[in-house]
Design brief:
It is a single chain. The protein has 287 residues and is mainly α. Helix 3 packs antiparallel against helix 4 (59-78) and helix 6 crosses helix 11 (232-245). The chain folds into 2 domains: 2-78, DNA polymerase, domain 1 (Orthogonal Bundle), CATH 1.10.150; 105-276, Intergrase catalytic core (hpI Integrase, Chain A, Orthogonal Bundle), CATH 1.10.443.10. Strands 1-2-3 form a 3-stranded antiparallel β-sheet, with no helix packed on it. Helix content is 55%, strand content 4%. It has helices at residues 2-7, 12-32, 42-54, 59-78, 105-113, 120-135, 139-143, 173-185, 187-191, 210-223, 232-245, 250-257, 262-265, 273-283; strands spanning 150-151, 156-160, 166-170. The protein starts with a helix and ends with a helix.
Amino acid sequence: MDHLTVVRRLARNTVTAYHADLRDFFAFSAQQLPDSPQSCNKENVHLYLQHCHKRGLSPRSLARRLAALRAFCNFLFLQGEIQDNPLALFDAPKTGVQVPKALTPAEVDSLLNSPTQNTPLGLRNHAMLHLLYASGLRVSELVGLPLGACNLASGHLRVQGKGDKERLIPFASHTATVLMTYLERSRPFLLKGKQSPYLFVSNRGKAMSRIRFWQIIQQAAMAAGIAKQVSPHTLRHSFATHLLNGGADLRSVQMMLGHSDIATTQIYTHLDKSRLKSSHKKYHPRG
């Protein structure tokens, strides 16, 4: 885990996930396989993935477990425990391309324009929802956002994302107004005289948790009458989809989302059937 954090510089959530995956493999190994570094080979990993498949894990979960085991084998190789990485060329389960689910602009309006509770917690939740849609942040980035990362005067965020990569994200003046209301009328009340380096704080003056914000956004979606399952990632998807549908270039959206590979951003270029039909009718010579 130290190697993944210090040398590989993987994100904390990734390291935590890999840790859980490796512990699960070791638990399986203790029952099925000899206890030695050499037991982490193609044949045994294949047995383990079959075991996980029978337990109902999705192809995406299987692929992540393989990634964790491949990283572990690479560490063993670097430490001289094994002669080579037996999983270097091991084929990962095919996960398919998942088209992100996004809200419609009307649904986003309903979510953001629902009556705001005129309480410190209500103002905080309202500000978090506005900033999430305005910036496309990951939920971990949102709840961990430092107070100094938000510049209301210039209207931009300075975000430290995955792999400690820094990026700048602009936001509109309306979002700045919502944030200012939170900072003036909510945050001091929640802190109760305490100090915090975080922009968004709990009612005990501490950093928000990802799980708590999941609950907040689901409650807000229900209050807005949105029938879809809504998560923090749904607003991130909506941010990217609406920008691209509105004509933003792919490279700019990639930079704002913090994707290292533009292919990851390209999954947001899906078009709905109605837009395809109207484009065909407008531009095709025999439309």
